[in-house]
Design goal:
The chain is mainly β. It has four helices and 49 strands. The strands form eleven sheets. It has a ten-stranded antiparallel barrel. Strands 11-10-13-14-21-20-17-18 form an eight-stranded antiparallel β-sheet, with no helix packed on it.
């Protein structure tokens, strides 16, 4: 008896489709460049424990090593003549803040070489200290306070302007212009410019009133604003239009704090939980104001350097004003960015490094919506960079277990100890050790501490790892479309990943490489066949190997899998073995942004796909006819533990029992939804 069901899928067509899909997917996965970390302030010339193999540093805990961070302060000073205002480290005056209206080709002595038809366009350029404001809007306001024109910046406007400047620089340098000549001179120092003011709608032509320009920044309830002196338009006898400063009565310089008159020079402590309101007006009519909450300094590390007068600090998120470098820049390829396949799950913190003076240790931080605040450092003991310990370059960024083995290197004379779990120094090489990392909180970044004693001093250092969930269990309902109708199936799925194999930490074979997946589903209603109906049940067990180590649900990977499948179709049973490939990662940003338009989807999302081909029957009486499975699956993590999931795919069950002389062929397209728990 033959049992044949289907939806018209030809086996070869399906297999060719799978190959095409895998090629497309692999084109976007792992599109990253391999670049080294950018060093911060000049690296120490002292001998350190770092080597090519051991280059992941532990940070020094600032609190336990005697560092005190006093409350943030607002520091400002207006010159006695009222012509300049210094807020923190940023100077505002007619030399640092101006607006220029001129033909684009005359905004730099060499720019006309690369402009072409844009050369004669009348441009409007804004020169303002970059650290003072990150504008979200520009307004043109009349003498009477009437709004004449406004422009709201899009998300990419400033980035596009900086790219245009970079393109001009490259073209001019290629034509032989000195790089120093196009670094920060003329238009190349403009914060932003409209290269064609008329097309931008700026009402400068036939403008009879005097006016001023105001650049503003708004971030939620936090805001700042800087306004220019007054300008007016003048037309020369030859018809040339120019913008000139308007002579007005000198403005009395003043400063207001929270709406009250304040001294022209002051340093004051500011609260972290309520906004600071500041307003200053200069002699020439320029003004600067903000009402904003300060940003806290998220400090990770402080240590000495080879230069006696400099210290090196490391922090994350809010970068200080002045020179600092990102230690973990995004390393996506241009193709990955173009496709929008950036990761959306992981540690989003951006770590930076900067140098501070030992004699006057401080940094200046921007507020949440502008403003500038000072953070001082009170130091009693400065950790020696020479005493820093380093971990193996292949140390993972996450773990499933408490007590994961981390391998490190120290100075031979240094002693290491811990109050958490254990640390053991190699008896053959006193510079190397094995540390059992303490990680108790799942779904969180865990910090574990290691004490380093050297030259009679003890420094407390630490490392951080995310602790993930190695197991997940879910229940699903599936709708399956076949040629003979629609059936509903119930499914239970279990997934588990292992830290290593029997405590063996080999990078290539063991650590965070292996996982198992088991699924069982059964039809609630029976399928129509030639002689009646038949139930369908399928048990699948997969063994998976990741090409790159990492955590399931967090770190992207491609891998291989071996699969056992046992299909029960009425009286027919067909156990089989197969192999395939899987790919798993966070939801690509381009799709994540789209799905986030739904409130219920504004959570982290994880997606995976797999293709399995079964080519080996486990029963000599059963022959296979190209059974395969192509599955797409995703889950939305409503919390660390609980998630919703959905998936779709195509499956082909095709085999023949020679003893019973029966053949089964079932080609299906299915969709599934479910709920699950991580544990």
């Amino acid at each position: 008896m033959d049992i044949t069901l289907g939806i018209g899928w030809n086996v070869n067509i399906a297999q060719h489709l799978v190959v095409a899909l895998l090629i497309c997917i692999s084109f976007g996965a792992y599109g990253q460049e391999n670049t080294d970390d950018i060093p911060a302030a000049k690296q120490s010339l002292l001998k350190t424990a770092a080597t090519k193999e051991f280059n992941k540093p532990l940070y020094f805990d600032q609190i336990d090593n005697g560092l005190i961070l006093p409350p943030l302060e607002l520091e400002y000073e207006m010159t006695p003549d009222g012509r300049a205002l210094k807020v923190g480290s940023v100077l505002l005056s007619d030399k640092t803040f101006s607006v220029a209206f001129a033909p684009l080709g005359k905004t730099h002595s060499q720019l006309n070489q690369v402009l072409g038809s844009e050369n004669g366009q009348m441009s409007l350029a804004f020169y303002v200290p970059e650290s003072l404001i990150n504008p979200t809007a520009i307004e043109m306001v009349s003498r009477t306070g009437r709004l004449l024109w406004s422009y709201n910046f899009s998300e990419n406007d400033l980035a596009n302007w900086n790219k245009r400047l970079d393109d001009w620089r490259k073209e001019l340098i290629a034509k032989g212009v000195s790089a120093n000549n196009v670094a920060r001179s003329g238009i190349f120092s403009a914060r932003y410019a409209f290269v064609d003011a008329r097309s931008a709608g700026v009402p400068l032509w036939n403008q009879k009133e005097s006016f001023r320009f105001c650049l503003s920044e708004t971030r939620g309830r936090n805001s700042s604003r800087v306004c220019s002196p007054r300008y007016g338009m003048d037309t020369a006898p030859d018809g040339a239009l120019s913008m000139l400063k308007v002579r007005v009565e000198p403005v009395k310089p003043r400063v207001l704090l929270h709406g009250q008159e304040a001294p022209l020079k002051q340093t004051m402590v500011v609260p972290m939980d309520s906004p600071t309101s500041f307003f200053a007006e200069l002699l020439g009519g320029e003004s600067y104001e903000f009402i904003t909450l300060p940003n806290k300094l998220e400090l990770m590390d402080i240590a000495d350097t080879a230069k006696p007068n400099l210290l090196r600090i490391v922090g994350y998120d809010t970068r200080p004003l002045g020179r600092s470098v990102i230690l973990n820049p995004d390393q996506y390829s241009g193709l990955t960015k173009m496709l929008g396949f950036e990761a959306t799950i992981g540690d989003s913190r951006k770590f930076w490094a900067a140098a501070i003076l030992r004699e006057d240790p401080k940094v200046y931080l921007p507020g949440e919506g502008g403003g500038i605040f000072k953070q001082r450092f009170e130091l009693s003991q400065i950790p020696r960079a020479q005493s820093r310990v380093y971990l193996d370059k292949r140390t993972p960024t996450g773990t499933y277990n408490d007590g994961i083995k981390l391998f490190g290197r120290k100075q031979p004379a240094a002693k290491v100890s811990t109050d958490q779990n254990s640390v053991r120094v190699d008896s053959d090489d006193p510079s190397e050790f094995m540390w059992r990392f303490k990680a108790e909180e799942r779904g969180q970044i865990n910090r574990s501490y290691l004490n380093v004693e050297m030259d009679g001093k003890t420094y407390r250092s630490y490392f951080e790892l995310y602790k993930g969930f190695p197991r997940e269990l879910s229940g699903r309902f599936s709708g399956v479309q076949t040629a003979s109708g629609f059936i509903v199936m119930g499914e239970v799925a279990y997934n588990q990943w292992f830290e290593d194999i029997f405590s063996w930490s080999n990078y290539w074979v063991s650590r965070q490489r292996w996982g198992i997946n088991a699924k069982y589903f059964k039809s609630f209603n029976e399928l129509k066949v030639k002689d009646g109906t038949a139930p369908l049940s399928v048990l699948t067990v997969d063994l998976k190997y990741r090409f790159t180590p990492g955590l399931w649900g967090r770190d992207e990977t491609v891998g291989l899998l071996a699969s056992y499948q046992d299909v029960g179709f009425g009286e027919l049973k067909a156990p089989m073995l197969g192999g395939g490939i899987f790919w798993a990662r966070s939801m690509p940003k381009v799709f994540d942004d789209f799905l986030n338009t739904l409130i219920i989807m504004r959570y982290p999302k994880w997606v995976d796909m797999e293709f399995i081909y079964y080519g080996q029957s486990m029963n000599s009486d059963v022959t296979l006819n190209a059974p395969m499975s192509l599955n797409f699956h995703g889950k939305v993590l409503w919390s660390d533990r609980y998630f919703g999931e959905a998936g779709f795919g195509i499956k082909r069950y095709s085999f023949q029992d020679k003893v019973q002389n029966q053949k089964a062929e079932l080609n299906t397209f299915y969709g599934t939804v479910g709920l699950g728990i991580n544990f």
